[in-house]
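In response to a reviewer's request, we include the raw inputs and outputs for one of the modeled complexes. The two entities were modeled together in a single run.
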Amino acid sequence: MGSSESLIEKIASKQQQRGLLADRIRTKEMEEDVILEVINLKKFFDIPVPFETTWFMIAFVGAIVLFAFYQAYGLIAIGAIIVLYFGLPYVPPFNKRPRVAHLKAVDGIDLRIKKGRIVGLVGESGCGKSTAAKTIIRLHEPTAGAVYFKGIDINRLTSEEMKEIRRHLQIVFQDPYASLNPRATAHDIIIEPFDIHGVASGDEASYRVLTLLKDVGLAPHHAYRYPHEFSGGQRQRLGIARALALEPDFIVMDEPVSNLDVSVRAAIIQLILELQRKMGLTYLFIAHDLSLVKILCDEVNVMYLGKIMEAGTSDEIFESMMHPYTKALISAVPIADPTKRSKKIFLTGDIPTPINPPPGCKFQTRCPLVSDVCRVEEPIARWYSESHVAYCHNIEGGEENPDFFIQ
Amino acid sequence: MSRPPEDILLEINGLKTYFFTEEGVVKAIESVDLVVYKSETLGLVGESGSGKSVTALSILGIVPDPPGKVLSGEVMFHGQDLRHLSDSDMRKIRGNQIAMIFQDPMTSLNPVFTVGDQISEAIMLHQKVTKKEAREKSVKIMSLVGIPSADERVDNYPFEFSGGMRQRVMIAMSLSCNPELLIADEPSTSLDVTIQAQILELLKATSEEFDMSIILITHDMGVIAEMCDRVAVMYAGFICEIGDIMVIFKSPYHPYTRGLLGAIPRPDAAREDLTIIRGSIPNLINPPSACRFHPRCDYMMRGLCETVLPGLVEIESGHRVRCHLYTEEGKAWMQERGEKREIGHVPKAAVI
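The model returned the following structure tokens for the whole complex.
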């Protein structure tokens, strides 16, 4: 954990050695306790929009038939079709037609994650929370925006430098079976990061594997088993052990317990909490189970269609939520207490497609408070305390600047 | 809390279903006894592999055979044992008086027929109506379950619907013949919470409107708490506790129910309150002897729990528990050793 300062220095000195200007790597003065800062991060996936190929194909077949009877006319027709097919996309008004559509999975999110905190990212499926997490640790290249890890803009690092940083940014995936190599034993899986980063080898590495297995609640004799020989909960423990191998500072937990049974789920949650206490880890915890997020996370970010709708501490989000989406989402969670059957807020319809999201506020199509301004203008951040921010036109109060609360 | 016997709609006694696979005999259901009253919602809760779905399939007689086989037990519905009905008689009941909704609507809808065709098929099978009337009825029932512009969407194919809408189509199909009992097998598990709330509300509203009983199968204690009147907790092929929802959530008697309630984040719980059931779900090819929960149980009585299967003990009317903590044998065991084992009734996480 003490390696983080040396890491920054190492990268800085490397830059000097190579004579590169420091501005290639943007650094940012960050507050002492902030470990990761995400600024206006966007990730769009390109989806090709085909030009009307079908009609050209039909015309082309027609031209070939024509060629069979009248060779000259046929040749002219074939030539014209080819010219039109390749030329038309460059001729107005056809050149206005987009060649690719953007699937706006993450459409500008901001996060500030403080050291030692558990930050939740919640939302319905398809809202972009997993893409956001993967983009944050640069498993996807972002379309725009910056991620500062300990002041370094990680998206500007070369792959070699990124490898250094990767040791400190780890991820645990939802489906442990899909993310563990079925042909490698537990020992091989956990020792791999040591090999790649040259941290330890031989007996020392094997010894550390056994220690890690013990840390995550597995026994030494599990080391030579294959993933399929473990139960779901044990497999997830193995995934956690692999993420811990390089002593990271920051771990993304991408729905680590969604696939597990209730009794096993509680055990994994306990393990995640225990490791955090012991090693001072920082988590970005992605989940759709809000009752779990409520007890687990210090801060919660609510996402909808690639945007953060509301963010705040766990208490602020669950006790004094402001945004209509958060209200609906939280009221929809079934409460395991038959004496508290709550009145629900029902949202109509489904999430719109992120390929063509509605203009203005993304939530307008399902919002119970929707007004005319929502349909044209994107809402700005309004702060309700130093940490509590919501993006909505139709809620009262709030300040436009969080500094208001600091004084 | 128990209601008079004439209110009983479905009664299951000693149901036992095994699967004869190449690896061995999977003892999926060992003994299931339960009663469903008229116009109530009974929750069937348990972890994966506890036999919830197999119970549902066994009721309807649609356990895949081979490898599955219902070995014994009776399923009494309107005074007749469904297990002894002929195939054609059973077909008249299935979908007509007892309907079922499956977890994944995409795999249970036929992708090459329009949803209107599929709903009409169910109607025409059980009622003497023309194709046109069946179609009109489909549109009516589709708008009833909240599908917007149903008269157009009736001609759409399943892939043109979203997950929540598909589940609505499934519900429409199952409601089309006004069943008396609806078996809903994890109807909302694959859906988002906002959609789940819609679907559960729809089920609740329709069960009231049609005066229909529901067996709601789920692993989510939250859904049970929201929806059900009574709940049966299943573990490894046994019903371990059954009773009124308020009683079970407030003071569970079975150690497993208690563990299950402690393992879920509840409203006023803190991080530390999450309790763990140690160990994992047993392999049902070679399950633990006698009480199948004993290897994971904190109250295990050595020499008793692994040798003698506890019977269902009636704690109070309508609340039955299968655990030696309450049986005569168990009491004798405790007296013999001078030990007192008692379950702290309210799990720590539950502050009701």
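As requested, we also summarize the result in words. The interface with chain B takes residues 124-125, 231, 233-234, 261-267, 269-270, 273, 288-292, 294-296, 328-329, 331-341, 344, 346-347, 350 of chain A (CB under 8 Å). Residues 64 and 74 of chain A are 6 Å apart (CA to CA).
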